[in-house]
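Q: How do we represent a protein-ligand complex in a form that can be generated token by token?
A: Start from the inputs.
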Amino acid sequence: MSDTQSEILEALNLPQREAVTTTEGPVLVLAGAGSGKTRVLTHRIAYLIQKCGVSPQSILAVTFTNKAAGEMKARILKLLGEAEGATSGTPTMGTFHSICAQILRRDIGSLDRAHNFVIFDSIDQLSLIKKALKEVAPNSTISPRAVLSAISRAKNECMTPEAFAVQKGGDYFSDIVGQVFPIYQKRLKDNEALDFDDLLGLTVELFQEHPAVLEKYQRMWQYLLIDEYQDTNHVQYLLVKLLSEEHHNLCVVGDDDQSIYGFRGANIGNILAFEKDNPDTKVIKLEQNYRSTQPVLDAAFHVIQENTRRTEKRLWTDRKEGQAPHIYEALNETDEASYVVGKAQELHDNHKISLNEMAVLYRTNAQSRAFEEACMQAGLPYRLVGGVKFYERKEIKDLLAFLRIIQNPEDEVSLERVVNIPPRGIGAGTLTELHRLVKETGGLKAALEALHTDLGDQIINSRGRENLYIFHAMVESWRELNRRENVLEVFDQVMKETGYLEYINDGTTQAEDRYENIKELRTTISAYTEFGPQHGLSVLLEEVSLMTDIDRAQFASEALTLITLHQVKGLEFEVVFLAGMEEGLFPHSRALLEEKELEEERRICYVGITRAKAQLFLTHAESRSVYGESRPGIASRFLVDLPDDLVTRSDWEDKYVRKSSSLAASSRGAAPVHSESTGSRQLKDSKAGSKFKEGQRVKHGSFGSGVVVQIKGDELTVVFDKVGLKRLLESLAPLAAG
Ligand code: ATP
Ligand code: MG
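Then emit the structure tokens for the protein with magnesium ion bound:
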């Protein structure tokens, strides 16, 4: 055995080794998180190539993301050693969608379709559905998105429009879907387009109708390996079955406890039924976890064991010692983010843990905003996975562009961005003409005011001119409002008059995200009302643009990862922060009523906890702003599942009050601590003399809104939403209930 070859097997435990060396026939590795399933696949590929002399071209490996495929490839090359790795070529690796796209590019001709098809994303899909809906039921109020999901579900079940029409439920909705489905498919075809579901569905169709084509791929890919098998849906299941039914050299790995894509049709049953479909399956269980310490595993176990639909398994680890998972109860989402970012910074500075080894996980995309802002304020580099940064998101940029025009009548860039959003008949031609007018008049403001002069008449086509005039008048009215009212009123008026919410509400999943983001933006803006009319808007815009600059300047390769729980599958970090552990947020409110969905939320939580190698922080907030309003937060049931002797706890009072009273306050982070009350004073013992109560919300002339956390005679300790903790003398401070 060469060195590299022995490494392929020696770095594995016995059951892992068995999974790697059982190369012929079906193998099912059913095992918990961090037990080395992905490692088994990687080593198995290297073993097949090196020990069994299998050509890399005969191997097909399916991973959950293309990035995972890339990482796996890199490790295989390393295991094979430079020389062999470089000469032997690489296996086919990627997601189901990318592999199917490759197959179809080659062979879709057999289905009488063009090879140069385009792939439609959900926005394109929706526009087709909307048009079809208009034809079929012009007056119906059915949401195009609901129709699209129904069609997508049908496609994932490999159902044709004809089959759907035969079996449909007989109710009005299915009737409409039944009519839209064939029109939608025809439009796709007319556009030479496939949607995501077609990539899989047409490949199955191709294989079923053209045995010669199927045979070609069966012969080519003699060895199949599938990661994250628990999240395959029906059509993916069929693909695997078709490709493997001749040779059965199929190795799938998965963990039923980590099935978290049920809402997209993933079927946990596929993994549970594997043995039935593949007689003589060798089932291998892996029980040793190499990723996490015992306390982390215990936490994961306590959460997942509440589920009833699961195969019983428990992991063990050699790493018996470890830090207890820590639960932090935050005051609100700002405090939560400041705690997490402060902790990350401390672990980095004092314990030399790389930021790349830390991740903040949350349930919904909108939660990232608070963490992004805290990172920017603290100057901590971060990496937002799977999303555009908050202030770079289209809807946020659009709405800020409206506000910018109010603030600065010469801002042509912002005007161009939103002058036709939502569409109001101002096209590129009109904008070119406007630009000429701007040159003539010397500025945007002057140009807009000259629309109805002879010059305007000469330069701009009359229809475009009228529409521009209406837009200009609308902006003028906002400017007027901004002179009288606070920035939140102005923002609300912009939302209302532009109909922006209706504009983004196109029924897609993105629309839901956008809506959440707009709510987040409104929450941010509400903090600027205290600056009063006009001033509030300018402070807001300035701070936002500074944030963007700092963000750009400080983006470095070492960074804290911000990521949703759904995207974090398969990854691991030294330190994991699981944020927003509150009822209604996580578990998500949509899941609170359905037992089945609650079990999925629980699995999502299990996935999150098991990403941690050494340290786990779970945070929840006492109150959270939703759409500019503060709502009380109840600790997630998943936290309740963790026994007291397993975890340690702290809360915002520890962070602010106790710390500041011992004067060991630090001034870092979003909540700087310093005392306003210096000079001599007499402290009364009772709280009775105060007109405030502990826990009451108050408003300060310059610090804005906050909560009274401690009363000692005349001295009040208040945590302000924006500036953090301050000590004030009640008799002197401009403080009122609010
Ligand atoms: P998940 O369910 O989260 O996808 P997994 O079962 O795929 O996890 P891996 O990611 O393959 O687990 O492995 C978890 C960690 O344990 C990795 O860092 C891996 O390198 C390490 N590991 C796995 N097996 C061994 C082993 N036999 N010896 C040393 N380290 C191992
Ligand atoms: Mg894995």
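Residues 37-38, 570 surround magnesium ion (ligand 2) (CB under 6 Å). The radius of gyration is 30 Å.
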